[in-house]
Design goal:
It is globular and about 55 Å long. Helix 8 links the parallel strand 9 and strand 10. By secondary structure, the protein is of the alpha/beta class. Helix content is about 45%, strand content about 15%. It folds into 2 domains: about 250 residues, TIM Barrel; about 60 residues, Non-ribosomal Peptide Synthetase Peptidyl Carrier Protein, Chain A, CATH 1.10.1200. The longest helix is centred in the last third of the chain and has 19 residues. The protein starts with 6 loop residues before the first strand and ends in a 22-residue tail after the last helix.
Length: about 350
């Protein structure tokens, strides 16, 4: 298959391999690593529109908006309930340097649905389309507006009709691309992603850009989705947490080469040092110590002694702790472990 990626509005992607927005994960540090490992494009974690529009100047809040020069193109994802709250938030993200504004209509988390945000809006086509139109009007013409959707709120006929109403209506209101997750909101992360539905969406869309999502935990799965559904790109979500190597592995397979083996222990060590340094630069040592534990638990899956490494990382609080784990478990080189079998863990809001 071709390595060339789609063009989203005027933003051309070098390949069809994208890192998804991941709540609590896809900060600047994770996105920079993804780009360095071959992701053509990455999205920041989903942000509440009201937070973005009114965010203060303390380091922790500004870190959630921070963009690095090397990560362009980069997308910012917004979530909310009131169409009036989206335009100022979208303009703020553009001012912070985001190249694309993405709207979340897919998050299945209970507290999000209870506040009429995320996936709930798949049941409210008029409100959803009003949001799309207002965001499109609010940002400059050269900034693409995109959506993230699931295939419906549930499997009812009404839900399916609402999906198509929003999909076609969003395109008609200027959405440059739509990412579709093959599960319903009701499913959350249970059961397989419906790739046949993704194929139907792409057939319906024609030349309109569709990016597929769901069950992408290996390079083979990413290439299989592209081949079986015809989507223009793949959005890797949970499969990229603690596994930035998945991007290079997917690019290798797309280029007709064998999939590279899991990273060696020393290769893992270098990325762990790199990610820690990026997080320290962004957040400072105290916040990085808390934030990086959830990443480290995922990184541990690639280590052959993954359970002991996981337990050691859980106790990390400061830089000295992090380096101590590396010195203890990553000093001797050796083959890594394929984490693709560990696919049943659920993270927070990946729509």
């Amino acid at each position: 298959m071709a390595l060339r990626g789609p063009t989203i509005g005027g933003v051309a992607l070098a390949s069809p391999v994208v890192q998804a927005a991941l709540s609590g994960y896809s900060d600047r540090a994770m996105r920079v690593l993804a780009r360095r490992h071959g992701a053509a494009y990455a999205l920041g974690e989903v942000l509440l529109d009201q937070f973005v529009a009114t965010v203060g100047t303390n380091r922790r809040n500004l870190a959630r908006l921070a963009v690095a020069a090397e990560e362009h193109p980069v997308g910012g994802q917004l979530m909310g309930a009131n169409p009036d709250d989206f335009p100022p938030a979208a303009r703020r993200l553009v001012a912070e340097g985001y190249d694309v504004i993405d709207i979340n209509f897919g998050c299945p988390v209970k507290k999000v649905l209870g506040r009429c945000r995320g996936g709930y809006l798949l049941s409210q086509p008029a409100t959803a389309l009003d949001i799309v139109a207002r965001v499109r009007d609010a940002v400059p013409p050269h900034v693409p507006v995109t959506l993230k959707m699931r295939r419906g709120l549930d499997d009812s006929a009404e839900s399916r009709d609402n999906f198509w109403t929003i999909f076609d209506g969003a395109c008609g209101r200027g959405a440059a691309a739509i990412t579709v997750h093959g599960r319903t909101v009701q499913q959350k992360y249970v059961g397989p992603s419906d790739w046949e539905f993704l194929a139907a969406v792409k057939r319906h869309a024609g030349d309109r850009i569709v990016i597929g999502s769901g069950d992408l935990f290996s390079a083979a799965a990413c290439v299989a989705m592209l081949e079986r559904t015809g989507v223009d790109g793949v959005s890797i979500a949970r499969g990229a947490i603690g596994n930035p190597w998945i991007f290079r592995q997917t690019l290798a397979l797309l280029a007709g080469h064998p999939v590279p083996p899991p990273p060696t222990i020393h290769e893992q060590r270098e990325v762990l040092r790199e990610h820690w340094a990026l997080s320290m630069e962004l957040h400072g040592e105290a916040v990085a110590g808390r934030s990086m534990r959830k990443f480290a638990i995922k990184y541990a899956r690639v280590h052959p002694d993954h359970l002991a490494v996981r337990d050691a990382f859980i106790a990390v609080k400061v830089n000295a702790d992090w380096q101590s784990v590396l010195d203890r478990f990553y000093a001797a080189d050796g083959p890594g472990r394929d984490p693709a079998a560990d696919v049943n863990e659920v993270t927070s809001c990946e729509a």
